[in-house]
Amino acid sequence: MILSYPTFRYMGLKSSLPLPPWSVVLSQILFYFILEDFVFYWGHRLLHTKWLYKHVHSVHHEYATPFGFTSEYAHPAEILFLGFATIIGPALTGPHLFTLWLWMVLRVLETVEAHSGYHFPWSPSKFLPLYGGAEFHDYHHRVLYTKSGNYSSTFIYMDWLFGTDKGYRKLKSLEEEGKQL
Q1: Could you tell me which residue ranges the Fatty acid hydroxylase domain spans (predicted)?
Q2: Which residues are CB-neighbours of 119 under 8 A, at least 6 positions away?
Q3: Percent with pLDDT over 70 in the chain
Q4: What is the pTM of this model?
Q5: Closest Cα partner for 86 from 105, 67, 70, 73?
Q6: For the chain, percent helix, then strand, then coil, each to nearest 5?
Q7: With the C-alpha atoms ordered 109, 98, 30, 5, is the resulting torsion angle positive or negative?
Q8: Per-residue pLDDT, 144
Q9: Number of CB atoms found within 10 A of residue 32's CB
Q10: Has residue 98 got a pLDDT over 80?
């Protein structure tokens, strides 16, 4: 982030007072989440092709049962490749530095939570219907690399739209049936 500051300044990043109104901050953060999820989905799905998985993404999947720190554990090429999804929104909008920092904090908290292995009572998946969370992402880490699905970053709409969450939904359905017996 520090090294990218001059580039963001060139793209319109503001750092002076006053801070932007909350309506601007929240609308930009929402836009960043939606755009990041779209770009991340396609990038992550591409990383699950045979060659890219073997040579790049397999580093991240060394842990079949992820924990918080594994969210950032990846091949340097993957960090740059999927990091593009995180910075594309701010690069397009030229936000205030406060908004950029808030976005980065929320993005890191989300990915650590998704890799935590725990479905906490305060998890956003409890009150945001399209939020994936740890349970959704744990399935991704447990299944064979080319068939795993659940490629989304934050929200599950891309996996639902393209049917890459069918295995997960089937498993959840079977678990529900098992509870009813």
Answers
A1: 30-164
A2: 125, 133, 134, 135
A3: 96
A4: 0.89
A5: 105
A6: 65, 0, 30
A7: negative
A8: 65
A9: 26
A10: yes
Lowest mean pLDDT among 49-53, 71-75, 127-131, 141-145: 141-145
Give the pair of three-digit tokens for residue 99: 């908004």
Residue indicated by tokens 């064979």: 144
Query: Which residues have CB under 8 Å from 12's CB, separation 6+?
Result: 93, 94
Region for residue 130 given its phi and psi (left: phi exceeds 0; alpha: psi -120 to 50; beta: otherwise): alpha
| Tokens, residue 25 | 């901050």
Task: Please identify which residue in the block is written with the tokens 């908290």.
Answer: 109
Using an 8 Å Cβ cutoff, are 133 and 116 in contact? Answer: no
Q: What value does the mean pLDDT take over residues 153-173?
A: 92
Beta bridge partners of 14: 96
pLDDT in tens, 41-56: 999 999 999 999 999 9
